[in-house]
Amino acid sequence: MEEKTCEINGNLEGGSIEIFNCTVISVYTLFVELFGKDLITKLPLFVDNATRGSGHTPITIPALRRFVIIKLGIEEFADVERIIYQFSHELCHFIYYCLYGIDKELADEKEEAICTAMSLCCLKYFCKNIDKWTNHVQSLKREGYRNGFEEAQAVDFDAFRLSKIIIDNVAEQAI
Q: What is the mean pLDDT of residues 69-79?
């Protein structure tokens, strides 16, 4: 029997759940194309939507040194752009866990910038007009997140070019 590598669950009640699920699956499918099935299935992944009082969201956390949980903070399941923005950012952190191992160090400012850049690149891929989101990123307090705009701009908001940079950086560090 094939082991399950990804599951969407938790706090997903309401009329727009299909939109939420389709959006998450679309972003996940793009990441399979960007990084390959072997890499993205290297660790089991659980996607959960948090409710009030469940801690910081969105966040990507390793659990029990065996799997990774992406906890989103989506209140309106029909807000496709917000789902893409949050999920692609957190899924990029998941890719770093797949590349560096479940015990990798917490994300530094560079990783945060790359993950924010991936959010913008994915928004561009799916939505085309991302002015609202580029303005949002540039207004963020944390420098790492703000630097995501420059990282995305450097690859012309192209998720494929950014994924290649992520993979190439890992290969350079291995040498």
A: 88
